[in-house]
Amino acid sequence: GAVVSQHPSWVICKSGTSVKIECRSLDFQATTMFWYRQFPKQSLMLMATSNEGSKATYEQGVEKDKFLINHASLTLSTLTVTSAHPEDSSFYICSAFTSGGSNEQFFGPGTRLTVL
Amino acid sequence: RKEVEQDPGPFNVPEGATVAFNCTYSNSASQSFFWYRQDCRKEPKLLMSVYSSGNEDGRFTAQLNRASQYISLLIRDSKLSDSATYLCVVNMEYNFNKFYFGSGTKLNVKP
């Protein structure tokens, strides 16, 4: 299957700082990228849907000014957690999707964020 | 009501057992259905898509019942390596290709 990378794989930061997470589709062009968050023992929660060249669509309850998403190309999307707080500590996973194919989404390996 | 609902389990079964999971979805306009597997602290990985006629991949069989709006996953001859959380995923293509995840069903296969 297609390969999606995420960087960094884990990050520890101080409260109040911002953290940028990159999601790249390595061998295909993704028309859409999704950003998810997963707290321990819970399922993936969709945060936002990102289409290349347009503004991201955020799910209800997700602050767009706190979670900045940039999707500058068909192979790269970034999520920036601004002014991170301990409650933002979570596992952030991106996935990439191309319409017209098998409708499968390919997941990145995830980024584990710990905010102290 | 959640878009996709699953029994969280855990299902504790011995090696060699047959185990089945069900998943119900609320929107009859749902188009595509998948089972993903997620290991602890890892990203989900596609196990299999679910087709209307049902499909089989080795020890795994998936079924779709549109009338009752549920999908199922059957695992035969369980292996220790099958221990994971199984996620039911539904795609509604009319809605920006949005995917809805169930909360997952945890399976523990014991020796």
Task: Describe the protein in words.
The complex is a heterodimer of chains A (116) and B (111). Helix content of chain A is 0%, strand content 52%. Chain A has 116 residues and is mainly beta. Chain A has strands at residues 4-7, 10-13, 19-25, 32-38, 45-51, 57-58, 67-73, 76-81, 90-97, 105-107, 111-115. In chain A, strands 2, 4, 5, 6, 9, 10 and 11 form a seven-stranded mixed sheet that branches. Chain A has a four-stranded antiparallel sheet with strand order 1-3-8-7, with no helix packed on it. By secondary structure, chain B is an all-beta fold. In chain B, 0% of the residues lie in helices and 55% in strands. In chain B, the strands form two sheets. In chain B, strands 2, 4, 5, 9, 10 and 11 form a six-stranded mixed sheet that branches. Chain B is globular, with a radius of gyration of 14 Å. The N and C termini of chain B lie far apart (37 Å). Classes of the chains: A mainly beta (116), B mainly beta (111).
Topology:
The complex is a heterodimer of chains A (116) and B (111).
Chain A: E1 4-7, E2 10-13, E3 19-25, E4 32-38, E5 45-51, E6 57-58, E7 67-73, E8 76-81, E9 90-97, E10 105-107, E11 111-115
Parallel strand pairs in A: 2-11
Antiparallel strand pairs in A: 1-3, 3-8, 4-5, 4-9, 5-6, 7-8, 9-10, 9-11
Chain B: E1 4-6, E2 11-14, E3 19-25, E4 32-38, E5 45-50, E6 55-57, E7 60-65, E8 70-75, E9 84-92, E10 98-101, E11 105-110
Parallel strand pairs in B: 2-11
Antiparallel strand pairs in B: 1-3, 3-8, 4-5, 4-9, 6-7, 7-8, 9-10, 9-11
